[in-house]
Amino acid sequence: MAQQGKITVTNMIYGLGAAIVIVGALFKIQHWPLASEILTLGMIVEALVFTYSAFERQNSDLDWSLVYPN
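RE: above sequence
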C-alpha cells in the first residue's frame, strides 16, 4: 500500500515539468526571449513523464477507505 504524503521522483518531475510549462507560457504571453524554448522543454518533460507513468506498475489492492471513509 502506498504511503500518504510520500514524495516520489515521478511526482516531483510532474511538478517541475508543470512549473516549466507555466513559466514558458508566462514568457510567451509577455513576449520575453526564450519563451518557445522554455515552453518546448516543459512540454517534452511532461510528455516523457506521462509516457513513463503509462508503464508504471500500480498497486493491485487499493485502499478505498481513503476515498470512501466510514
